[in-house]
Amino acid sequence: MAEGNFIGLIGLGVMGQNLALNIARKGYSVSVYNRTAARTEAFVRERLKQEPITPTYDLQTFVQSLERPRKIILMVQAGSAVDSMIETLIPLLDSGDLIIDMGNSHYADTERRMETLAARGLLFLGTGVSGGERGALEGPSIMPGGTPEAYALVEEVLTRIAAQTEDGACCTYLGRGGAGHFVKMVHNGIEYAIMQAIAEAYDVLRAAARLSTSQIADLFEEWNRGELNSFLMEISYKALRKTDEETGKPLVETILDKAEQKGTGKWTAQAALDLGVPTPSLATAVFARTLSHFKQDRMKIAEAISDALRQSCPLDTSTLIEAVERSLRLSMFLAFSQGLWLLWEASRAYDYGLNLSEVLRIWKGGCIIRARMLNFLREIVQEGGDNPHLLLSPKAQAYVLENMPSAQKVVNVAHTCGIPVPVLDSAVDYLLSMSRANLPANLIQAQRDFFGAHTYERVDKPGTFHTEWE
Question: Could you list the active site residues?
Fold first, then answer.
């Protein structure tokens, strides 16, 4: 019989508290520690009932309370706080003990930490978690990466606390190194794009179709019963229905239009640039959030030139509404497609060994981007073989061709009405670019060779060439 608690958890923010309760309610004994003792005391007083959770108030007692090999989950703020906690723990641990970082860490930091700990005989898992506070308590999507040896120590508990679907637990071993945190990062990049696309659809419906907030909520709920069924659509129509107690207006109409971000979307765009993978919808969503912050500048510019940029909006509301729904389908599909291409290339470049079908499977429950569309995407991935961006699939081609005309219509109407739709527009341009046999990059290569002697290739014979242009 093992002595000590099965697992330990450091960091009792709301996510950490809920995860500890989730683990304990699945029958595993848990030791918890928080740097601020008052938070631990409040957790015990306010939330602990009969769960097998042991509070501790210093790290040495915390470590000693665990069975060996020790398994310790970190739920602390990403960045230097993780490094600081690891350095503090190292002298207290023995060879074969495992640290599991379940925060939103950058994949490169995860790989660095893994190497540092391996040199000291310690195991490390970089594990992405999606589902928010409720998911942590009831079952999140869990994305672990590291060595198979490390994952084997916690496979049973992670799969039990994860969300469960008809296809199994939303947790699986993803691959070597920083695979887990890379997958979670791309998950968040896709999340940015879908959220922005839904917000743009809302904007077109209110500004061009002239629908009320409650009418848009009804539409979103209806769409959520069809192909667009997803967690993000569900929370969108629920948010639109919330009434502000002070004004009696829809609460969303009282919220300042400045969107915040924590950095994972930016990391996705940076990784895509580093790997040379086009993810315009994911990157554009990051820039859209950044642009929203310049509220005062936008107000001044709008006062000066907004009317001159806007023409009269068409009044064919019914066809516009259907087109907006189809444009959302296209944008969501291509956001997933771009993210999967990035995962495919990262797995090849970093030797992760990712199984993209399994990635999609564990996104089906618990996580923020869970959606009915994931089943369709899995079909394409499983049939496609070496098809990183999905668009070589006849199924994918039929799907985008079905929805593309509507997306083009929405973009045209939006621009005529002076409504920005950067992610919906980026989806259209991405598909047009990927389906264009000849792009104007030949002129760019001529320009580069003209001013920098960067050379170019020719269409009629092999080799690299340079021209004296003047």
Answer: 184, 191
DSSP characters over 90-113: GGG--TT-EEEE-S---HHHHHHH
Rounded CA gap, 373 and 395, in Å? Answer: 13
Residue 418, judged by CB atoms within 10 A of its CB (0-12, 13-18, 19+), counts as middle
**200-235 pLDDT tens trace:** 999 999 999 999 999 999 999 999 999 999 999 999
Q: What is the CA radius of gyration of the chain?
A: 25
User: What CA–CA distance (Å, rounded) separates 88 from 86?
Assistant: 5
Of the candidates 339, 349, 371, which has an alpha carbon nearest to the alpha carbon of residue 141?
371
SS3 for 228-242 is: CCEHHHHHHHHHHHC
Look at strands 168-169 and 164-165 and give their pairing: antiparallel
Q: How many CB atoms lie within 10 A of CB 261?
A: 15
* Cα 22 from Cα 52, distance rounded (Å): 11
pLDDT tens-digit series, residues 320-344: 999 999 999 999 999 999 999 999 9
Distance CA 338, CA 333 (A): 9
Consecutive H or E run containing 55: strand 53-55
| Cut 0.90: pTM above it | yes
Q: Token pair of 309, please?
A: 């940029």
Q: To 5 degrees, how large is the angle CA 125–CA 135–CA 328?
A: 105
- Whether the link from the prior residue into 52 is cis, omega within 30° of 0, is no
